[in-house]
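Protocol step 4 of 5: obtain the predicted structure for the target chain.
Materials: sequence only (see below). No template structures provided, no constraints applied. The aim of this step is simply to have a reference model before the mutagenesis design in step 5. Sequence pasted as it appears in the construct record:
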Amino acid sequence: MPVNKPAARNGASPRKAAARAEQAAAEVSRDMPMREFSRSLPMALMRAREAVMRHFRASLRNHGLTEQQWRILRALGGVEAIEVTELARLAYLLGPSLSRILRDLEQRGLIERRSVKTDLRRGLVSISPEGLRLIEAVAPSSEAIYAEMTRRYGADRLAALHEMLSALEASLADMPLPGNGHIKDEDDDASL
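Step 4 output (structure tokens):
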């Protein structure tokens, strides 16, 4: 059975005709009972995060790291050792993802894991000397990116943005979650 392709108009290719149709569909506006998608706070934060992170990804890839691996190494770089559950909260990673990433980082010799002597079910993680050397290798590139972002956006505006984001986070910390009427406990794995 033949496949129907969008009709080409005025000799345009089917691909261009399809692109025009998608653009026309996107231009149709609807009255929605909520704010415009482009004015959604979660989407604005995601767009800003992507605008920032796209500058760091190439440097991380050049050092054989993913964003999540880098977050873990950065978090570990500031502590002697940390429990796995606390690391998950600190790095905003779910348990299964963290387990996989820790296994990879340990195989590469970038972290060290051990059990808590008083409770063998609890694990401690620390960065290894090799992991610290990797942070030192990534740091110049990372700091150069930060310097350029600061130059473009402005040091005062960047500091104010950090303060506003911290204030937003703090103001929402005890806001009840929809549907369950209570705030998720810090110990609730689903809140990671």
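Step 4 remarks: Residues 39-155 form a domain with the Arc Repressor Mutant, subunit A fold (CATH 1.10.10.10). The radius of gyration is 23 Å.
Proceed to step 5.
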